[in-house]
């Protein structure tokens, strides 16, 4: 697969160096050098309808464009320690989720922060990313050309240690393998996969624990089909040899938000219709055994209807090598109709055999009565098995796929409580955090801490 191609890679493990997209564009790079030498009274107030939020004001200097330079890794080469890069991911907007083609559109603010002790605070301080160390981030699951605006902020703490933050504003289509085992009760992970050209002995990714990641749910364009959760999971993997061709291991960070499919449409138009089609097969039992061909005709018609309906349902899904939940349910019902067809064929043959090969008196007194009893018990057994299967399917839905949704809602609540506890304000939500981050970046300032300066 060529870089920038719209073709989908076979799997995440098959994405190699040739498919990486370097998150680095000198023509759009901006640098904001910041010094935190403000007094206690200097603050910024962010006001909204629910909460008044105070944060330390950040002064910026030296806004300039920088040309490329070959000395960008000079500090790293002179350093003997690996650098810990803290990752924060904000999904500013999630667009259409294309299940059939396994991709989605997103606008993402990705922030990578690290300490650089080689930077010294001066009256005319400037930060040049072309001559200073940067993490050299690379996107691994991009499709086509993504828009990437890169900017830098530098913040000095009380000990005059510089913390550099690299901001990436990404817009574009990302590939994501859709896990459809539980369709239509599935939950999809919408991920952005980031790696680096630095070896794992030089750079280690870690989650930014001071600044929360999250999702902006207010501008979700596919809301009628999906429910978007607010929390973001950040997972760091190490020693991923499949991703590289240079013989070294590179650290990989996966930032994932989660979307749950709204299953109401599929419950009524898939599960319920399959249930009705299969239930209609029990209407064949009142037909007399003397007209057994009528039973078989109706049962075969229902069988073909079930197969055709299942084929129509699968047209909305990508070609996959496993069965989804609705597939298993449909096949189970088709199998029950097949058993019913076999039963009608067998009982019809037995009735015909007794009617043509035995004495009429014996048939009238023994065989007919026994066949009718068998037919009635067959109706009872098939009915019990059918509704047991329906009940088992319902219990499985509650205990497996719907349980995952409950866990996701629990994670959302835990994330909200963590944000409120972190800022000592019960009225703080992630929307306030997101608004502060967007406003600070838009005004070319270092990111605002919502309640107080926390770095």
UniProtKB/TrEMBL annotation:
<dbReference type="Pfam" id="PF02931">
    <property type="entry name" value="Neur_chan_LBD"/>
</dbReference>
<keyword id="KW-1133">Transmembrane helix</keyword>
<protein>
    <recommendedName>
        <fullName>Neurotransmitter-gated ion-channel ligand-binding domain-containing protein</fullName>
    </recommendedName>
</protein>
<feature type="compositionally biased region" description="Polar residues">
    <location>
        <begin position="11"/>
        <end position="21"/>
    </location>
</feature>
<dbReference type="InterPro" id="IPR038050">
    <property type="entry name" value="Neuro_actylchol_rec"/>
</dbReference>
<dbReference type="InterPro" id="IPR006201">
    <property type="entry name" value="Neur_channel"/>
</dbReference>
<dbReference type="GO" id="GO:0005230">
    <property type="term" value="F:extracellular ligand-gated monoatomic ion channel activity"/>
</dbReference>
<dbReference type="InterPro" id="IPR036719">
    <property type="entry name" value="Neuro-gated_channel_TM_sf"/>
</dbReference>
<feature type="domain" description="Neurotransmitter-gated ion-channel ligand-binding">
    <location>
        <begin position="77"/>
        <end position="243"/>
    </location>
</feature>
<keyword id="KW-0472">Membrane</keyword>
<feature type="transmembrane region" description="Helical">
    <location>
        <begin position="296"/>
        <end position="313"/>
    </location>
</feature>
<feature type="region of interest" description="Disordered">
    <location>
        <begin position="1"/>
        <end position="21"/>
    </location>
</feature>
<dbReference type="InterPro" id="IPR006202">
    <property type="entry name" value="Neur_chan_lig-bd"/>
</dbReference>
<feature type="compositionally biased region" description="Basic and acidic residues">
    <location>
        <begin position="1"/>
        <end position="10"/>
    </location>
</feature>
<keyword id="KW-0812">Transmembrane</keyword>
<feature type="transmembrane region" description="Helical">
    <location>
        <begin position="320"/>
        <end position="343"/>
    </location>
</feature>
<dbReference type="InterPro" id="IPR036734">
    <property type="entry name" value="Neur_chan_lig-bd_sf"/>
</dbReference>
<dbReference type="GO" id="GO:0004888">
    <property type="term" value="F:transmembrane signaling receptor activity"/>
</dbReference>
<dbReference type="GO" id="GO:0016020">
    <property type="term" value="C:membrane"/>
</dbReference>
<feature type="transmembrane region" description="Helical">
    <location>
        <begin position="270"/>
        <end position="290"/>
    </location>
</feature>
<feature type="transmembrane region" description="Helical">
    <location>
        <begin position="377"/>
        <end position="400"/>
    </location>
</feature>
């Amino acid at each position: 697969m060529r870089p920038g191609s719209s073709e989908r890679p076979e799997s995440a493990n098959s994405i190699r160096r040739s498919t990486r997209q370097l998150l680095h564009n000198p023509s759009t790079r901006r640098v904001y050098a910041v010094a935190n030498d403000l007094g206690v009274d200097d603050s910024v107030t962010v006001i909204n309808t629910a909460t008044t939020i105070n944060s330390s004001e950040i002064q910026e200097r030296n806004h300039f464009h920088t040309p490329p330079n070959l000395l960008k890794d000079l500090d790293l080469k002179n350093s003997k320690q690996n650098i810990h890069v803290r990752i924060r991911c904000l999904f500013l907007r999630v667009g259409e989720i294309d299940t059939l083609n396994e991709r989605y559109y997103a606008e993402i603010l990705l922030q990578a922060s690290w300490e650089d002790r080689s930077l010294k605070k001066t009256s005319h301080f400037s930060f040049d990313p072309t001559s200073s160390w940067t993490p050299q981030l690379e996107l691994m699951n991009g499709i086509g050309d993504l828009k990437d605006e890169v900017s830098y902020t530098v913040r000095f703490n009380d000990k005059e240690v510089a913390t550099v933050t690299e901001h990436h504003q990404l817009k574009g289509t990302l590939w994501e393998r859709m896990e459809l085992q539980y369709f239509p009760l599935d939950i999809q992970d919408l991920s952005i996969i980031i790696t680096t050209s630095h070896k794992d002995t030089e750079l280690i990714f870690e989650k930014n624990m001071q600044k929360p990641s999250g999702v902006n749910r207010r501008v979700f364009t596919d809301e009628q089909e999906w429910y978007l959760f607010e929390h973001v999971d950040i997972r760091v993997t190490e020693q991923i040899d499949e991703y590289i061709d240079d013989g070294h291991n590179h650290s990989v960070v996966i930032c994932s938000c989660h979307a749950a499919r709204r299953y109401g449409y599929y419950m009524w138009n898939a599960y319920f219709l399959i249930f009705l089609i299969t239930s209609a097969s029990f209407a064949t039992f009142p037909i007399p055994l003397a007209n057994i061909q009528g039973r078989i005709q109706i049962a075969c018609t229902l069988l073909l209807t079930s197969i055709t309906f299942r084929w129509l349902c699968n047209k909305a899904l990508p070609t996959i090598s496993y069965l989804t939940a609705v597939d298993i349910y449909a096949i189970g019902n088709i199998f029950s109709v097949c058993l019913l067809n076999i039963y009608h064929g067998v009982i019809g043959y037995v009735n015909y055999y007794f009617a043509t090969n035995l004495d009429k008196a014996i048939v009238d007194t023994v065989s007919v009565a026994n066949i009718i009893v068998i037919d009635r018990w067959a109706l009872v057994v098939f009915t019990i098995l059918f509704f047991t299967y329906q009940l088992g399917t319902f219990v499985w839905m509650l205990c497996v796929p719907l349980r995952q949704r409950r866990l996701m809602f629990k994670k959302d609540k835990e994330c909200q409580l963590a944000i409120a506890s972190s800022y000592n304000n019960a009225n703080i939500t992630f929307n306030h955090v997101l608004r502060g981050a967007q406003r600070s970046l838009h005004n070319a300032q270092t990111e605002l801490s919502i309640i107080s300066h926390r770095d």
